[in-house]
Amino acid sequence: MDSLIVEGPARLSGEIQIDGSKNATLPIMAACLLSDEKSVIRGVPSLTDVFTMIEIMRHLGVKIKLEDDVLTVVPDGYKGNEAPYNYVSTMRASICVLGPLLAKTGYAKVSLPGGCVIGPRPIDLHTKGIKALGADVKVDHGYLIARAKGLKGASMHLCGVYGSSVLATANIMMAATLAKGRTVIESAACEPEVVDLAEFLIKMGARIRGHGSHTLEIEGVKRLYGAEHHVIPDRIEAGTYMIAASITRGDVLIKGCEPRHISALIDKLSEIGVSIKSNPDASIRVRAPRSLKAVDITTLPYPGFPTDLQAQITALMSTAQGTSVISEKIYPERFMHLGELNRMGAQAALEGDSAIIKGVKSLSGAQVMASDLRASAALVIGGLVARGETQVSRIYHLDRGYSNMEAKLSKLGAKIRRIKGKQ
Ligand code: UD1
Fold this sequence. Notes:
Layout: E1 3-8, E2 13-17, H1 22-31, E3 39-42, H2 48-59, E4 63-67, E5 70-74, E6 82-83, H3 85-88, H4 98-105, E7 107-111, H5 124-132, E8 136-140, E9 143-147, E10 155-157, E11 159-160, E12 163-164, H6 166-177, E13 182-186, H7 192-203, E14 207-209, E15 215-219, E16 228-230, H8 235-247, E17 251-255, H9 263-272, E18 275-279, E19 283-287, E20 297-299, H10 310-317, E21 323-328, H11 337-343, E22 347-351, E23 354-358, E24 367-369, H12 373-385, E25 388-393, H13 396-399, H14 405-411, E26 415-419
Helix pairs in contact: 1-2, 1-7, 4-6, 5-6, 6-7, 8-10, 8-12, 10-12
The structure holds uridine-diphosphate-N-acetylglucosamine.
Uridine-diphosphate-N-acetylglucosamine binds at residues 23, 26, 92-93, 121-126, 160-162, 165-168, 189, 193, 307-308, 330-331.
């Protein structure tokens, strides 16, 4: 298992290019299963989650290749309809093949994802949705097995205890494209990645309205065609580097991003004193002063503050003046990074679903362990300003969602290197 060694403190400056969105790419890849024809997806990031999805598609019998950032998918006559445990256990987003497989082949067998380090991850909304479309669903030997002799459009309310679900919305929207008649999903997720998926499906011939709102309407069609698409920029990658620039009190131009998709972060960074300028050429300049103010943040479904930036902003607030309260309303147990940040000298305590963070003057380098994708990014961000050496181990989590993070940060002036095969 690789580690990252970060020597701090650094001040980041320069320009950085943002990749295509991981969370848009994965369901769009799954959507290709709805057609027999070739699709071409551009702007695809080189990440282990994308490689896992490629393996799943190959396992299903799909011909697929990634060259640079262009993914060519030829589903023609694929026969498989099972997503086995070894894939789903490394990437929960594998669940998004459920809807397309069921709609196209009438049968889907997908390993149940189980729990994970950021808390329980139920799939009741996925099953509720496909049942509403007329599927028979059972759980057998750790697998969710869904069968249907032709799905039928239906109206449903797809809201869970923590609000809407991104991938349940994606799954049901995909399944409904080939269902007979009209489907209405109330309380649909309106994340930009769901909108991007809807736009790809429309290019394939789907009839969808209301994407980007909480009410999705899908009129089923008989067949879908191949399509070409360029995925949206990764708002979480962009946000992560904006936070990295801020914690180092740096001056960084983030290129190839969509400022509208990260307005909640822009709002909070501005509130703590970071200067943010969005430019018409899809770039954002981030300049941070020496002293930053504390702020309270609550993670919420889009357009609220994203849970996928909570760990990173927690690292940032540990270096601000005063006490910040960061409440997690999507995954109330997503706080594994607090203990590790405290090893670096942060003063963060957990109270229910909130982290209480007292800003400190400086962090100090330490050996820390990455527990999940975004927590890993938070530890690297902390390491950038910590005095001395920080070793972040288990960074295979990081590679799931950030391509070449060490190269990108080095270009901005960070001292960071990868050690191969170290715990
Ligand atoms: C997606 C993102 C992930 C992000 C999350 C929340 C992808 C590949 N992943 O994950 O990075 O952190 O959105 O923005 O796009 N829930 C239920 N029942 C369900 C499904 C979800 O109660 O059937 C709950 C979850 O436990 C969580 C909340 O709903 O509390 C939101 O989760 P959801 O939007 O489904 O997350 P994912 O789509 O899995």
